[in-house]
Fold this protein.
Amino acid sequence: MSWLFGILGPEISGKTVSRSQAIHGGAINTFVNHGNFYFAIGGLPATCFSGRTLNPNGELQSFWVSLGCAFGKNDTGRKLFGQQDWSQAKEEDISSLDGHFVHLRFEKGRFQFLTDKLGLRTLYWAESTRETVVSTRIDWVANYVRGRRIDFEKLGSRWRLYNQLTYDSPVQGIQRLGPSGRLVIDRDIATSSYRPFEPEFSRRVTTDRYIELLSQSLNPKIDSHLTMSLGLSAGLDSRTLLAMLLHSNPDSFQTHTFGIRQEPDVSIAATIAKNEGIRHLICDVPLPSTAMTISLLDDYVAQTNLVEPAYAMLRLRHYDGVDAEKYYIVDGAFGEISRRQYMNQLLLVGKQAVAHRMVAMFKKALAFNRGDIFNPEITGLMEHGIDREMAAMLDTMPDPNRVGMGNYLDLWVVRTRIPNFGCNEQARVDGIILNYMPFAQPSLINSIFGIPVGQRSNSKLFREIIARYRPALAKYPLAKNNATFPFYFPRIASMLMARYKLRFGHAYDDPSPHIFLSMVKEFTLDLLHSKETVEYSAYDYAKISKNVHDYYSGAKALSSKVAWWLTFELWRRRIER
């Protein structure tokens, strides 16, 4: 993670600075005004920029910080911001940038923090004993202020649905900045605001204009020696980007895939690369030792904030296989929005559900089982929180009769999934390698709502792009959830085939959950039997204990429940200790 940590208050002492440094570790840069504030930034230099101005006495007069990746306009399309671009950026222009970022400006005693339009990077803050602590990591804020507890009402949707629905922090006394966020701290008074993404529904966009915008997002000008590495899977989104790159810049990039050759994503991507003459890297980083896994696990869980189970760290360790000194990564994530792929179970009945506020219908469509590990009282709090968030979301959404149900559901995803699911992993990867997602750029997503739903449903738009720029890519199968199916299959047929293969054992069976849980067996059992776990009042401890012991006795179907409990236990210890 490219990170920020800061303390503001009337008496920032050397002891305060030392305590802060113990939390954040080594820094790329620090900004100190003894007695008023201390700020530190760190992570990857390619996603961490800053500058300062000194007064005639050599004292800090103003400074700025930008974390992440932003794109501005130039004569030919888009330009990735570097040090000089950020140093020259005007405050009023930052809100119009594409990309994912947190930006801080300090001048004339006033601090201003800004976040990107989609909320792919976020900020947390809390007040404690005449001090305000600010950070891009919620666990660091909790560590500094201490004594804060999990707010189970606000955690409800994050745990029981695919993702959280609002932009609230799940920790009591800690606040979070949402999309297009603005936090101003002036004379110890903090004011904040945010604005959910609002597309231009009335604007009409042609397929050619969408392709032009996608090309600009895919191929920005970069003031760097780095070469593009496209994350290539067996999915349609990365294949669409590959078709465009092969047409426009066939020798300017490589592709990479994470995992072992037996996985469909890896084997199909390798076949495509070989047949199409593309330089390709299979990132299969060796498994770390058990001791190293446990060490890495704690920080991984703290950074990802319950959006992925603990064993995902084994898959995501492969980022280290792409050399950050030579490459930057382009990822096809969130391409589903451009092909009307999310929440289709609500497409036919959604208008009725919205009109009559059928919260139960939305909850059923969005439900995700991370494990029933809490007692009935806590579960009730979570359900109440989900109902509250669902009502709040429905209040802020446009009339589906005006914008159309397909657009309504896509906007729901843009407002809830990108900032609540995508932002955590985005921040983590920003500390490993320069990266961005062409499909998750505000300008491109805005254009999607100007294309009739019928032109993009069933992946029509992406299939048209592939047919136009690299029709040979249609001869390779696609894969979803480790099950393969022919490229030409429509959405319903591909879903049915994937379900059939998964049900009858004809799909690749990912062993990583079992490998992971085997590696950390002793560690997991020690946590389970610890006094801190046994006496944690929110748990249904008997159910958790049975799941863990049954899994390690051979009930392998319980792997997900055990992994999610372990994930929560490690996360809540980072927050509540």
